Amino acid sequence: MDVQTLTYLFVGGSFALYIGIAIWSRAGSTKDFYVAGGGVSPIANGAATAADWMSAASFISMAGIIAYSGYDASVYLMGWTGGYVLLAMLLAPYLRKFGKFTVPDFIGDRYYSNVARTVAVICVIFVSFTYVAGQMRGTGIVFARFLEVNVNTGVVIGMGIVFFYAVLGGMKGITYTQVAQYCVLIFAFLVPAVFLSIMMTGHVLPQTGFGATVLDAAGNDSGVYLLNKLDQVVTDLGFTEYTDGSKSTIDVFFIAAALMCGTAGLPHVIVRFFTVPRVKDARISAGWALFFIALLYTSAPAVGAFARLNLIDTVHQTQYEKLPDWFYNWENSGLIGWVDKNGDGAVQMSAGAPFEGKPTFAGTRAEVQGSYGERVLTNTPTDNDAEVYIDRDIIVLANPEIGNLPAWVIALVAAGGVAAALSTAAGLLLVISSAISHDLLKKTLKPDITEKQELLAARGAAVVAICIAGYFGINPPGFVAQVVAFAFGLAAASFFPVILMGIFYKRMNKEGAIAGMLTGLAFTFCYIVFFKFVSPELNSAEHWLLGVSPEGIGTVGMLLNFAVAFTVSRFTAPPPDHIQHIVEDIRVPRGAGEAVAH
């Protein structure tokens, strides 16, 4: 059976499974819609949380960034995994004990203010839409290659699938769908990783293969370590050493901190801990989720390294007409471009940007062909020797094809990529709809609406959110992992300080929380927009504030949030006594009492 047929079977079968689960577990009440009725088991919630959190950025894009950036990409591994530990230890159990549906619900009640609740809703919308853009883009990339449609059509297909099971099932449907999606995505990520590790190093585990010696063409130990060989290969082509970082220490620190604190402030991850029956279950499910997440994250560096080495070996100095089929397939999707700058008909890989921006094509291969049958590019080539543009987001999806793995593995990876993107997209869209229907409408604007009307409003908000998310998926501001990094920065700058101080600092009041959230969000958002959209030509270290990139500026926004919130709270009235008692209560284990002397 060919790759195309297998892909239809794998992706179609997974869709049927997700939709069947959504119908079986459809929400019948607002509690089902928002927190799955609060009765999800810790292991199931751990798997659902892992799927919710391991988005298209983790599955599709992270290994691609590692493949190209090498050491610099370690910041994503440190930030995202470290942030989950922070969330599990510092926030999740206390938020579960507080017992609210959403993050704005916690902020509105903790800070005894509908204004604070509304500001939190605004923060949710900014963070979630930035995050979901990356997921819809990831979905479009998967469909572009494996269903042989363009990326924009792929985004629209993904919108339709998410619409069906997110709007129908709510959190209850999404939770059990995400359990299935985790099983699909982790199997799809690890199977090719194991295959490639055995083929390239002789090690079954990619985690150990990453630090092992590579095999030669005859299958014997070459005595050359994988990373040493990769260093040599990329430096010969003019790139910096794979194991040497180009980012400044301060930027690495700020990006890692933004990703860590952003993880701990992500509303769609936090809400997962409201779905378990007890506070103890929140801690247990956090432990399971960390285990499930580690399976992928400890394999990603090896996958990135295998992909980069295989890519260069397969493509560099190969005549265009003799390239493997995967190159032509991805070229048809518009995510690879080649221009013959020296007229030799061979593909040359070297450092530098081969085109002015991403490749734009004069038409399809059937409509416009170059001298060797390639798609003709319309954007002006730059003056260096680089001839190839490869979108980083295709590395994991193309990896099985580059490594010449069986067709069923290629189809499995397609299903895994879709599962990763859709699982997180559904969670984010639910958070957006819940913030609008529950926190803005029910709690603020129209408190007298019935449960049925609230549920209808939630579903209507999800429909609008899907349409907006689709637009951002078609017009993304960067690579999937970059877009997601911006979302983490916004979450760190807006939510993390007020949630942390809301739990551990009973003197924090509504004035401080509102001022802090607005300051952190506005500063971080404006900084990212300026360097990514208004003046992208200035997006370099010499123009950044303190040498901090847009990916790391969320840490500065977070520090401003802390400073402003603390200062304002000291010059305004303290919270009411009953609020301070609530803060003390959520930090004390249920049933604990004062020590009694004997």
UniProtKB/TrEMBL annotation:
| Keyword set includes Transmembrane helix | yes
- CDD domains, per database record: SLC5sbd_u4
Q: Which UniProt keywords apply?
A: Cell membrane, Ion transport, Membrane, Sodium, Sodium transport, Symport, Transmembrane, Transmembrane helix, Transport
Pfam families tied to this protein: SSF
Per the similarity annotation, which family is this? Belongs to the sodium:solute symporter (SSF) (TC 2.A.21) family.
- What is the top-level taxon of the source organism? Bacteria
| Location relative to the cell | Membrane
What is this protein's record name? Sodium/solute symporter
What is the native source organism of this protein?
Answer: Alcanivorax jadensis T9
